[in-house]
Automatic annotation (TrEMBL):
Stored InterPro entries: SBP
Organism: Paenibacillus rhizosphaerae
The entry's keywords: Signal, Transport
PANTHER family hit by this protein: MALTOSE-BINDING PERIPLASMIC PROTEIN, MALTOSE_MALTODEXTRIN-BINDING PERIPLASMIC PROTEIN
This protein's GO CC annotations: ATP-binding cassette (ABC) transporter complex, substrate-binding subunit-containing
Name by which UniProt lists this protein: ABC transporter substrate-binding protein
Lineage: Bacteria, Bacillati, Bacillota, Bacilli, Bacillales
SUPFAM superfamilies hit by this protein: Periplasmic binding protein-like II (SSF53850)
Gene3D superfamilies (UniProt xref): Periplasmic binding protein-like II
GO MF entries: maltose binding
GO biological process: maltodextrin transmembrane transport; maltose transport
UniProt similarity note: Belongs to the bacterial solute-binding protein 1 family.
Length: 433
């Protein structure tokens, strides 16, 4: 599920920032460190997560189930607005007063595991066989696991399409090759006096510019990581990938930059009929079905850039970690294992409309039957690899996005843009060492 999905702006969130160290949790009846036995004689575990209705409901159901199986355990579940949640976590760990169990986005985890702040999850070798590679990446340090992912955060490999728009242009089926994708996108693009009215192929989002760029490198059997956690974008594969990507704007003109960075997501514009094909993760499907009530769309594979399989990079998504400062680490790890059992993960993934990180759940016929739109993503989970040791996720993506806009509008050459991206990101990587 996209990290950007939860970045909802509100006055309440701003107030919470001001009182971050005081706390603004729902049901915040105790301090994060209050993990000893309370007046009931039960072992108390504090569990934090961000606020999102489906996710909170899924957690609450499984917490109740766990407590019924472990009457000696009480879980104090506290939630925080996404806009302040990461800051709240950092403040609690810095103050050596973190929750026993914390929901974290996989990209955040290395900052804590490198500093010895998290409990190691046992049986790492066996768990690596049970999970897909990409979701585990952020939770892994020196071949040890410091948490377990609940979802596979995939933004690649699938796109939303309006089948009727394709039929209206005489296109019988979704594109099977990259060349077909470009040609179909040209036919599907609709213009009026003000510019593009319907985008043929929209990939211009804060996530998908970067994810598409990296996937085009990988699909050429290229690499983008060098030594010492530095990126290497001075390769023929990177040059070809970025040239193809910027050409979709500058030459093929199947999309533009007008709505980039706005309040609405590219998927919102798709469901409003402003694009024929939109490259976005499967988490957007729920918005189409439930918010926009659109039924006549499909989620289909994005063809590979080459004759190679459509490999891609993915971030590690939402998961659970246990704090080293917790007084009941064994109980905290036991709850994480409980959440990560096949049956409970199936319930969580179905309730949150997320892609499973665990192979047995993704391959469960009940999950596939309940989520037919997910088939495109499920078919390529084995092709995903961890995006890598990004020190500052937002800065990494913003750097690529900023220079992409300059290159796509002719203000910077692809060669110069990639040089600037590489230098800027590597400087950031060094600053975080």
């Amino acid at each position: 599920m996209s990290l950007r999905y939860f970045k909802s702006f509100s006055v309440f969130a701003l107030i919470c920032v001001l009182f971050l160290l005081i706390g603004c949790a729902k049901n915040d009846g105790s301090d994060a460190s209050a993990t000893s036995a309370g007046s009931t004689g039960k072992t108390k575990l504090v569990f934090w997560s961000h606020q999102e209705d489906a996710i909170m409901n899924a957690y609450k159901a499984l917490i109740a189930k766990y407590q019924s199986l472990h009457p000696d355990i009480e879980i104090d579940y506290q939630t925080f607005p996404y806009d302040v949640y990461n800051q709240k976590l950092k403040a609690s760990f810095s103050a050596k007063n973190p929750p026993d169990i914390a929901e974290m986005f996989g990209t955040w985890v290395p900052e804590y595991s490198r500093n010895g702040a998290l409990v190691e999850i046992p049986e790492a070798e066996q768990l690596r066989k049970e999970y897909y590679e990409a979701p585990l990446g952020g939770y892994t340090l020196n071949d040890k696991l410091y948490g377990l992912p609940l979802e596979f955060n995939i933004e690649n490999g699938g796109m939303l399409i309006h089948p009727q728009m394709l039929k209206d242009q005489g296109i019988a089926s979704p594109p099977a090759t990259w060349d077909e994708l470009v040609e179909d996108a040209k036919k599907l693009t609709v213009r009026d006096a003000n510019g593009i009215k319907v985008k043929g192929f929209d990939f211009v989002s804060s996530d998908n510019i970067t994810f598409t760029f990296l996937s085009l490198i990988l699909q050429q059997n290229g690499k983008y990581w060098g030594d010492n956690d530095h990126v290497d974008f001075q390769t023929p594969e990177a040059q070809k990938a970025m040239t193809a990507l910027t050409s979709l704007i500058a030459t093929d003109k199947v999309a533009d930059l007008i709505t980039f960075g706005g309040e609405l997501d590219t998927s919102d514009y798709f469901f409003q009929g402003s694009s024929a094909m939109t490259y976005r993760g499967p988490w957007t499907i729920a918005a189409g079905l439930n918010t926009y009530k659109v039924k006549d769309f499909e989620y289909v594979p994005v063809p590979s850039f080459t004759a190679n399989p459509p490999s891609y990079a993915a971030e590690s998504g939402w998961g659970l970690v246990a704090s080293q400062k917790g007084k009941h680490q064994d109980a905290a790890v036991d709850f994480i294992k409980f959440m990560s059992s096949d049956d409970n993960l199936l319930e969580w993934n179905q309730g949150t409309f997320t892609v499973p990180a665990k192979k047995a759940v993704a391959q469960n016929p009940d999950y596939v039957k309940a989520n037919p739109y997910m088939k495109t993503s499920l078919d390529i989970l084995e092709l995903g690899q961890w995006i890598g040791p990004i020190a500052d996720r937002d800065f990494f993506f913003k750097t690529i996005n900023d220079h992409f806009q300059l290159m796509a509008t002719g203000q910077e050459s692809v060669e110069s843009g990639l040089q600037q991206i590489e230098k800027t990101i590597n400087d950031s990587q060094d600053q975080h060492k």
